[in-house]
């Protein structure tokens, strides 16, 4: 998926990083709904970083080894501001009928 809310993925730095020294090989992160992780030689690896949901940190919140980290949220919010992502998302939600049209 090369685009996110009308913005090139390359403009949005977001995704998990695993610290292999902390990973306890529990396999919980493989439950990711976007299938970002893969099991390789007894360890989890980030196999499809660009498939993540931008802003999602569920794996990091639930990782048993506290091994998963993400870029700083402030940097993500800055990218949203600079690339007008909030506006793109709101317009898309209005178009989908999930938000009322602005008067
Ligand atoms: S959830 Fe955390 S500790 Fe468990 S396999 Fe994934 S990275 Fe390793």
Describe the structure in your own words:
By secondary structure, this protein is an alpha+beta fold. It has a single domain (3-95), classed as 2-Layer Sandwich (Alpha-Beta Plaits), CATH 3.30.70. The chain contains three helices and six strands, in the order E-E-E-E-E-H-E-H-H. The site of iron/sulfur cluster has 14 residues, from loops.
Q: According to CATH, what is the topology?
A: Alpha-Beta Plaits
Percent of residues in beta strands?
Answer: 15-25%
Main sheet: strands, sense, barrel: 2 strands, antiparallel
Low-confidence stretches are none
Q: Would you report the number of β strands?
A: 6
Which characteristics define this entry?
binds iron/sulfur cluster; 103 residues; alpha+beta; 16% strand; Alpha-Beta Plaits
Quick recap of the structure?
This protein has 103 residues and is of the alpha+beta class. The chain has a single domain, classed as Alpha-Beta Plaits.
How is the secondary structure organized here?
Blueprint (H helix, E strand, L loop, with lengths): L2 E2 L2 E2 L8 E2 L18 E4 L2 E4 L11 H5 L5 E2 L3 H10 L2 H11 L8
Antiparallel strand pairs: 1-2, 3-6, 4-5
Bound molecules: iron/sulfur cluster (SF4).
The site of iron/sulfur cluster (SF4) has 14 residues, from loops.
């Amino acid at each position: 998926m090369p685009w996110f809310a009308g913005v090139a993925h390359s403009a949005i730095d977001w995704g998990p990083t695993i610290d292999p020294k902390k990973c306890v090989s529990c396999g919980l992160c493989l439950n990711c709904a976007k299938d970002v992780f893969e099991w390789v030689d007894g360890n989890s690896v980030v196999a499809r970083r660009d498939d993540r949901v931008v802003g999602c940190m569920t794996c990091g919140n639930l990782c048993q080894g506290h091994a998963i980290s993400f870029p700083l949220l402030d940097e993500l919010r800055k990218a949203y501001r600079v690339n007008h992502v909030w506006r793109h998302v709101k317009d898309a939600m209005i178009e989908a009928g999930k938000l009322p049209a602005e008067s």
